[in-house]
From TrEMBL:
Its EC number is 4.2.1.24. InterPro entries: ALAD, ALAD_AS, Aldolase_TIM. This is Delta-aminolevulinic acid dehydratase. It holds the Pfam family ALAD. The keyword Lyase applies. Belongs to the ALAD family.
């Protein structure tokens, strides 16, 4: 009477579909779910990128609502507040005025440039904070490229020479970790040798190992005013269609002395994160880039997604894919949500 064939009755005459495994038992309460949870994001996994400029005001970035170019004082406040929430690591990106930009990007190793000054300010006020610097010429290049340009080509080895000067300048100012994002061949070894020969054996290298020529960097280039002056970055950044190529880069970077390997962008490249995790025992970082941030923001501003839930889910998925470290513009906000919810 109303029962279908598959159903049986148990000893209490209740409907029963006979089966041993019921995966839902491990999901039956918050306590059980948290006991069996495989991956948890904590604020100490995050690196917060900070845009800085040499002005005494903050400049909002239209394509990244909620982010701004900070004055150095404001940057310092942001570091302090984030540190209180458990975010301990920061990466600096300078917006450089046009008059300081050149093909060789000499401003990249000016000891009184904005990045060395910012590093010194942070390390003085918060000695426990970890400062990461981006290594590439693009913020300083009048060509809008990561390297030195000659006849429309990006010169690999000449660029590395400039990057080594940049790294030594950053290390002298107190950088804890340098992060080459330029994708020149052989730069990790050259940077390691340069650091070591100047006595900076403790400065770490977080290499942008698998960095793709991605359309998701648009808002970042708005923030730094660093759109390529001509062409694109496809002769040095990887083709989004290629996965195995990342393993070549990972093999080279680890042999050359990288301490951590990064995949960038994040969400569309979770397979690459997993491949590098399986390939290398080094810590793996994922960069949740500006365009990914902008997409989430836009949808949430329209009321189409729940920002808190979608961000915490996204960050957890990076960990599940294999990321130990996550660079995200949401670092401070996510740390706040995690704290409010007592999520760990
Ligand atoms: C440049 C650099 C880029 C980003 C980090 N370092 C942009 C680019 O390669 O053009 C992008 C970060 C983001 O989009 O959030 N060396």
């Amino acid at each position: 009477e109303g029962d279908y064939g598959a159903l049986q009755r148990n000893n209490n005459d209740e409907v029963w579909v006979s089966q041993r495994a019921r995966p839902r038992r491990n999901r039956k309460s918050p306590a059980i779910r948290s006991m069996v949870r495989e991956n948890i994001v904590t604020p100490s996994n995050f690196i917060l990128p900070l845009f800085i400029h040499d002005e005494d005001f903050n400049q909002p970035i239209d394509s990244m609502p909620g982010c701004e170019r900070h004055s150095l004082d404001s940057m310092l406040r942001e570091v302090g507040e984030s540190f209180e929430l458990g975010v301990k690591t920061f990466v600096l990106f300078p917006k450089v005025p046009d008059e300081l930009k050149t093909n060789y990007g000499e401003e990249a190793y000016n000891p009184e440039g904005i990045v060395p000054r910012a590093i010194r300010m942070i390390k003085e006020a918060h000695p426990e904070a970890i400062v990461v610097t981006d290594v590439a010429l693009d913020p300083y290049s009048d060509q809008g490229h990561d390297g030195v340009v000659e006849n429309g080509k990006i010169l690999n080895d000449v660029t590395i020479n400039q990057l080594c000067k940049q790294v030594i300048c950053q290390a002298r100012a107190g950088a804890d970790i340098v992060a080459p994002s330029d994708m020149m061949d052989g730069r990790v070894k050259a940077i390691r040798d340069a650091l070591d020969s100047e006595g900076f054996t403790d400065v770490s290298i977080l290499s942008y190992t698998a960095k793709y020529a991605s359309a998701y960097y648009g808002p970042f280039r708005d923030a730094l005013d660093s759109h390529p002056g001509f062409g694109d970055k496809k002769t040095y950044q990887q083709d989004p269609a290629n996965g195995r190529e990342s393993l070549i880069e990972a093999a080279l970077d680890s042999a050359e002395g990288a301490d951590m390997l990064m995949v960038k962008p994040g969400m569309p490249y979770l397979d690459i994160i997993r491949r590098l995790k399986d390939y290398s025992p080094l810590p793996i970082a994922a960069y949740h880039v500006s365009g990914e941030y902008a997409m989430i923001k836009a949808a949430c501003q329209n009321g189409w997604l729940n920002e808190r839930d979608v961000v915490l889910e996204t960050l957890t998925c990076f960990k599940r894919a294999g990321a130990d470290i996550i660079l995200t513009y949401y670092a401070k906000q996510a740390a706040q949500w995690i704290k409010e919810d007592g999520l760990y």
